[in-house]
Structure formats: structure tokens, C-alpha cells
Design a protein that fits this description.
The structure is a single chain. The chain is α+β, with helices and mostly antiparallel strands and 135 residues long. It has a single domain (2-132), classed as Histidine kinase-like ATPase, C-terminal domain (Heat Shock Protein 90, 2-Layer Sandwich), CATH 3.30.565.10. It is 33% helix and 27% strand. The chain has a 5-stranded antiparallel beta sheet with strand order 1-2-3-5-4, with helices on one face. It is globular, with a radius of gyration of 15 Å. It starts with a strand and ends with a strand.
Amino acid sequence: MSKIKLPAKIGSLVELIQFVTKNAERLQFSQKRIQEIQLAVEEALVNIFHYAFPEGGGEVEVTCRQDEMNKFIIEIEDTGIAFDVLSVSDPDIHADISDRKEGGLGIYLIKKMVDDVRYRREGDRNILTFTLNRE
């Protein structure tokens, strides 16, 4: 298991993505799959940076590990405003762009890029868990 904790701000994004990428490479995911992982993690982190800490401040912690079934687990934790990403309904991607409601597309992409997404609130912490199967 490896872990990184950085300020919850856009300036931390590259380092956090690199951390997850190195862990995915170590587990020998394909380049295509790593790009999907990067996109999902980026979407989650940007949402945290913008919405969990509207006043700024705060930290985000990312943990990467492999479970007993050889699955890659990424946990993203913050102490920001509680928000269950799974409560957001999927956007109508077939509707004309001018008719679509704003928001929800990033969360939709996360759901498509990872095999399982879970959210839980423990005390003052949001914990978003991505599970990725080996190819």
C-alpha cells in the first residue's frame, strides 16, 4: 500500500496523478487502461478541489493498494463538504447539447472508466473508492 497527502488545490493535481500512474504501472496495467484511470482520478480530484473546499484549504489523501483478489484499489479521501458522487444521476448523453443539464458528465465518465465506484462518509471524511480489475 502506498499513500500521498497533499493540499486540495489544482496545483497538486499533476503530482497526485503521477502517484496513481506509478502505482498502476507497477501493477502492469496497459497504457490504455492507465489513461482511463488517470481520467477518472482527475475528474474526482478536480471535483474535490472545486466543491469540497469552496473556501480553499483542506487536504486530499490518495491511497493505492492491491487487494487479495489482485484488484487495484484507489481511495481518495478528504474532509470537505459531504457529497455522494453516486447520488448524481447520469446525464442524457443522447440529448442535444443545448438541451442537456449542466454537470454530471465527469461523474458519468468516472463510472465508465472504473469497474466499481463506492462512496462513504466516515466521521468528517469523504472516502471515494475506485476498484479496477486487471485486464
